[in-house]
Here is the input.
Amino acid sequence: MLTEPQARKLTAAVLAAGKKLAKDAALSVSMDSGRAANTRFARSEITSTGDVDDTTLTVGVGFGKRHAQASTNQTDAPALLSVLQRAIAMARLAPEDPELMPLLGPQKYASTPPGFDRATAELPASARAEAAHAAIAAADAAKVDLAGFHDLRGAATALANSAGLFAYHAATGVSFTCTARTPDGTGSGWGQGYANRWSDLDTVAAAKVAIDKSVAARRPRKLDPGRYTVVLEPAAVGDLLYFLVSALDARRADEGRSFFSRQGGGTRVGEQLWGPHITLRSDPASKLMPSAPFDGEGLPQRPITWIDKGKIAALRYSRFWAEKQGQRPTAAPSVTELAGGDATPEALLAGVKRGVLITRFWYNRWVDPQSILITGLTRDGVFLIEDGKVVAPVNNFRYNESPVKMLKNADALGKDAVRLATADGRMRVPALRTHEFNLASTSDAV
Here is the structure.
């Protein structure tokens, strides 16, 4: 992984070489440098391990409204010359882009908590293997099969351009996900964990969650589809919330193509769409989710409340759309957090006369972007709730539901939010209880 001085030197060399080739060009370069490593395991043994160190450069070239990019993962002088020549040639041939914005000049970035841990970045394969073996041992003791994926990344990102911009950020992330299956093939459970530091990740605890859930999910009872009160564990909440976050776009709302479009024109910013217990924020300075202080364009990240006590408070503005609408541009959010409530796991179940507990969703897809209607499948543990207690495992379902309705009908939020083990760990959410959730049909999946 390149240090900040090394990144400055490399990006400056690319820009200088580019200016020699095309003095009138607007030049930019982005760098991603670091290590990605992983360990896979299944059926009581490690099946593969991988470890890659790489530096990738993407060079952007613009001539007026014409622009193009080219990438390379070689940083010797001939390779840099070649990638510049390719980008320049393509930019001269490219059609004009009426929405192309000028390069950003130097920016001021807020200080964010350190997200880089050297011990994590240098974690050897033997440590990942020990974690996998400990998880496998717990599964063997419970007489279930376990499969999982343990990965880490230590990466530095740098941005530079011919207008004077330079930005650099280093971060680490490590995740562990696993699925447990009972030998008869009827029970499945899932567990996960994500952290910036290896020392903060409890892989055995994640495995135990999957193991215990798989045992509890054996021989599921048949339950008919319908609209149910459901308790969604954090992974299921995050699966749906992802689509809501991606829909927070001002341009689509202004153009009448979004759930956040107001009938007759404009957006729904300021409207009370949910209860006062619903708040969604992004904050690059979060101690629980430290992130880069800039986005992929180099725009500074700032704290933003997207949903403020149930009111839609903000939408994302690209640089082009912000200029057109007279608004401040918004960096693409690096992290999002749904504020938790005060409910314990027991309290989320209490008062549910008849409902369903869902571990997570899988194969989630858009149905209708205008209403943010999503479809997908439940997976790895679905349970019947009666009179405030989990009483039996049940079959899986296909759901058709919107995260808008999920939040609107939510009457309780868990007090313990969880950082999800996505590829980048960018979301932190609690479990929640919601009503009239559409489990549209049954599924034979385990």
Notes: Residues 4-21 form the longest helix (18 residues). The first strand starts at residue 26 and ends at 42. Residues 220-446 form one domain. The mean pLDDT is 96.
